[in-house]
Amino acid sequence: MHMHIFISFALNLKNFCLIFPF
Question: What's the domain of life for this entry (predicted)?
């Protein structure tokens, strides 16, 4: 339903992993 919210969340999570790789 709110796909843009899910996509933005996924992109933010990916960027966070790129900045702070675990």
Answer: Eukaryota
